[in-house]
Design a protein that fits this description.
By secondary structure, this protein is α+β, with helices and mostly antiparallel strands. The protein has one domain. The protein is built from four helices and eleven strands. Strands 1, 2, 3, 4, 5, 6, 7, 8 and 11 form a nine-stranded mixed β-sheet that branches. It has a two-stranded antiparallel sheet with strand order 9-10. β3 (16-18) and β4 (24-27) form a beta hairpin. α1 crosses α2 (116-131). The longest helix is centred in the last third of the chain and has 16 residues, at 116-131.
């Protein structure tokens, strides 16, 4: 999907797309929203193309969200501030992969309900860096969350060997 200043083609695909393994998901509409907001606030003409590709080295960040697993008619809910995302860029193209987590009770893979503001803020911050645009002040990106320690055995990105949190706890 090509997104230009004042021109946005209609997105007719799914809101999200889960990988065949279930380990990660693409939040298409959130990524498009992040790009549109960034383009609207930029004064010069700007072109971004959102599409799925994984042929470049990603930059990794962490976002915030809530997981809900329906286990034997009981909901198990947990909040995470360490949901691994990988941002892929190539010139004006970008895509973002969001890694899922497993339930501590039943071990099923669950998709997060993301904190949309934090997610959009992180994606836009990286796109600004990538495109050489003005970065927001520190106060604009200061939203933080205290959550329990990262559980490598439940993180799908750790299982795939890509989570920087796992590397951090090993050092």
């Amino acid at each position: 999907m090509i997104i230009e200043s004042k021109k946005v083609k209609k997105w007719d695909g799914p809101e999200t797309e889960r990988s065949a393994s279930g380990d990660y998901v693409f939040y298409h509409l959130l990524n498009i929203q992040a790009a549109i907001e960034l383009i609207r606030e930029h004064e010069q003409p700007l072109l971004l193309n959102y599409k799925i590709f994984e042929n470049t080295k990603p930059v990794q960040r962490h976002v915030v969200g809530t997981f809900i697993c329906k286990h034997k008619k009981k909901e198990i809910c947990w909040r995470s501030g360490k949901i691994c995302i990988e941002i892929y860029t190539n010139k004006s193209e970008f895509c973002v992969k969001v890694w899922n987590q497993k339930c501590r009770v039943c071990n099923r893979i669950n998709i997060a309900e993301l904190d949309k503001d934090i997610y959009i803020q992180k994606v836009q911050y990286f796109l600004r860096l990538h495109l050489g645009l003005r970065l927001p002040s520190k106060q604009d990106t200061a939203k933080t969350l205290t959550t329990p320690p990262h559980k490598e055995q439940l993180c799908c990105a750790c299982a795939a060997g890509v989570c920087s949190e796992a590397r951090r706890t090993c050092e």
